[in-house]
Structures are given as structure tokens and as C-alpha cells.
Amino acid sequence: MFMPKEKETKEAELVIVMFGGLIHKVCCANDAPVRVVLADYDVEGTNGIIVTDKDGNKVVLEVLEVEYDSLFAEQMIELI
To answer: What's the pTM?
Structure first.
């Protein structure tokens, strides 16, 4: 009986670029689908929408855009 070969799933390799404690970009080294959600518990002075987590803590959630910049991400990953 013919069994189709299972499609190999790529593991997402992410590089998060920060300056001065701020995230400037998120890069993925391959085309694996990924969704990045930033949970920021430092809500004082925020312009974002404050929600409450399951433990009753205030948090601002933000979905970050992922850049599929494999060359940059691969160069950073090779350094570790």
C-alpha cells in the first residue's frame, strides 16, 4: 500500500533585536509560520489596551510583526 510521505515541519528560528530594552524587530530564519505575542507587564504610562491575565495581573498584549529575513537571522544564529 502506498503511504504518502509526511511533510517535514520546519522549526522556526527567531532572532529578536533589542536596543535599550526595546524590541526593534523580530526576524525568522526560515519560512516556518510563527506568531509572536509580546506580553508587557510594565503597564504604567502605556497607550496600549490593558487586559488582566488569569492571575489578576494587568498586562498589555501586542502581536509583533515577523520579518522573514533569513540572511540576517542566519548570520545571528551562527554566532551562538
So the answer is: 0.71
Please enumerate in sequence order all residues whose Cβ is within 8 A of that of 34, keeping only pairs 6 or more positions apart, or say none. 12, 14, 28, 66
Strand order in the sheet with 14-19: 14-19, 22-28, 66-67
| Nearest alpha-carbon partner for 58 in 75, 45, 71, 77 | 45
8 has pLDDT over 90: no
Question: Would you state the torsion angle of the CA atoms of residues 35, 24, 15, 76, taken in this order, to the nearest 10 degrees?
Answer: 160
| All structural domains of the chain with their residue ranges | 14-78
pLDDT > 80? residue 4: no
Identify the residue whose cell numbers are 525568522.
Answer: 28
